[in-house]
From TrEMBL:
Domain Sodium/calcium exchanger membrane region, first and last residues per copy: 23-172, 240-382
Organism of derivation: Plantactinospora endophytica
Pfam families on file: Na_Ca_ex
Identification of the protein by name: Ionic transporter y4hA
Transmembrane segments: 24-44, 51-75, 87-108, 120-140, 152-171, 238-255, 275-293, 305-329, 335-357, 364-382
């Protein structure tokens, strides 16, 4: 499917397409999304967690940056704020839509979703800091009129974003890996209910450094469910890695092919141009959404949260520096500051996210609250 989609991308690039061909493009786009999820899971299983969940987030974000720059270079109405709209949509969809959906799926089957509060809290804090520095502050700075940064302010935001993201990757994959590994759901629930720490942990198993706790009881950061399945061979992993790259290129390329149709549909429906950024974010984040739901069904909620928050973090931490460099030769303003409604939604997301993460476990209510915030964002994007 990825190879077929890439071949179709080469065939239709830069051409005006009839309706029947556009339907085929959409089908190939959906197939590439599913293929990307499959091959990302193969590679992730080979390299192990938490580095595995980082692969899809970074890969998708790199392609997303390319798509944003391509659309900005092509010009047209609303491109000045396209980076802001897409990045903010990615933050809201990941922190509310993907997180809420993962929690809802996990709690529907097991009642309580357990995860590491330390790792998830660190990821959420980094996402909120990056979002505030890059998307909120431009609205209030006075160096230039309008919600824009000066050159020096933009450079500072870019460097700060890149440094914070790089530091988080080191913490997640080197210094404190245990903070980002799946926890044993049964240990969490039983320890919380009976007061017996690690009551049903594997005999002789010690609580690793960085394990979280539920009601003061330790929770073992150990893989669950299918974590002990045989890892794929090196050859299979390399093939999947190549097909993953091909699938992601196809997803973004075909989305670019459909972008004019999307823009025409948005304009024809009388919707704000910010909806284009929302649609792009929805398309790009489909692989991570599917992967997060699959992990939640397997009781690997921590991996779902790693995917969601890692994607939001990568979206800001990589897009802002790339846009900063691109702005050297791009004409026109670069609008990054959020409006008042968007700032309120981001603030509410921050408060709800903190309350969800702090206990290290969540119920169906937290999932529903996050999904409600995502629904509110999507509704207000079309009805500002």
């Amino acid at each position: 499917m990825p190879l077929l989609a890439v071949a179709a991308l080469v065939a239709v690039w830069g051409r005006s397409l009839p309706a029947a061909v556009e339907v085929v493009v959409v089908i190939l786009l959906a197939g590439s999304v599913l293929a990307a999820v499959h091959h990302a899971e193969v590679v992730a299983h080979r390299v192990g967690e938490p580095f595995g969940s980082l692969i899809l987030a970074v890969a998708v974000t790199v392609i997303e940056v390319g798509l944003i720059i391509t659309l900005v270079v092509s010009g047209g109405p609303g491109t000045a704020s396209l980076a802001r709209d897409t990045v903010f949509a990615a933050v809201m969809i990941t922190c509310n839509g993907i997180v809420g959906l993962a929690l809802l799926v996990a709690t529907a089957r097991r009642g309580v979703a357990a995860f590491n509060a330390e790792g998830t809290g660190a990821a959420l804090a980094t996402v909120l800091t990056l979002a505030t520095l890059s998307l909120v502050l431009p609205t209030f700075t006075t160096g230039t009129p309008g919600p824009e940064f000066t050159g020096a302010q933009l450079a500072f935001a870019a460097v700060a974003s890149l440094v914070l993201y790089a530091l988080f990757v080191v913490v997640q994959n080197v210094r404190h890996r245990d903070y980002f590994l799946p926890v044993d759901h049964h240990t969490a629930s039983r320890g919380a209910s009976t007061g017996t720490p690690g009551a049903d942990a594997t005999p002789g198993q010690a609580t690793p450094v960085g394990a979280t706790s539920v009601d003061g009881m330790p929770v073992h950061a150990t893989p669950v469910d299918d974590a002990h399945a045989a890892a794929p061979s090196t050859r299979t992993t390399l093939i999947s890695l190549g097909l993953l790259v091909a699938a992601l290129v196809a997803v973004v390329g075909l989305a670019k092919v459909e972008s004019k149709t999307i823009e025409a549909a948005v304009t024809g429906a009388g919707l704000p141009h910010t909806v284009v950024g929302v649609v792009i974010a929805l398309l790009i984040l489909l692989p991570e959404t599917i992967a997060a739901v699959r992990n939640a069904r397997r009781n690997r909620v921590q991996i779902s949260l790693n995917l969601a928050l890692g994607s939001a973090m990568a979206s800001i931490g990589l897009t802002i520096p790339a846009i900063t460099i691109a702005s050297i030769w791009l004409d026109g303003p670069l609008v990054l500051g959020l409006g008042s409604t968007q700032i309120v939604l981001l603030g509410l997301t921050a408060g709800v996210g903190i309350l969800t993460v702090m206990p290290g476990r969540a119920t169906v209510l937290q999932g529903a609250v996050h999904l409600s915030l995502c629904a509110a964002f999507l509704f207000l994007a079309t009805n500002p």
